[in-house]
Amino acid sequence: MTAPNVCLHIDGVAVEVPAGASVAAAIATRSEVALRFRRSRSGEPRAPLCGMGVCFECRVTIDGVAHQRACLTVAREGMQVRCDD
Question: Helices marked H in 14-71 — which ranges?
């Protein structure tokens, strides 16, 4: 039996992932943003490094709340995610 999918929006684009997947995993499925979750203060693209919430490189805006760690957040139906904010 396969897990049901949830649909969230990443930078306005609908993305479906299996229930229980992290927001980081959902972002990684989008090839055009997979290598940039955000930008550093100097403009360099940043992406997850540790995958366990220690490095803070996967920070995104989720449902209007900035600096959420995508690797620690479970994707929910209807969630709005903004990268590079």
Answer: 23-28
Q: Do residues 36 and 82 make contact, with C-beta atoms less than 8 angstroms apart?
A: no
CA distances to 22, 77, 84 from 72, in Å? 7, 16, 18
DSSP state of 67: E
Coil/strand/helix, residue 28: helix
d(CA 57, CA 13): 22
CA distance 59 to 75: 14
- The model carries a pTM of 0.85
Determine the average pLDDT of the residues in 1-28: 91
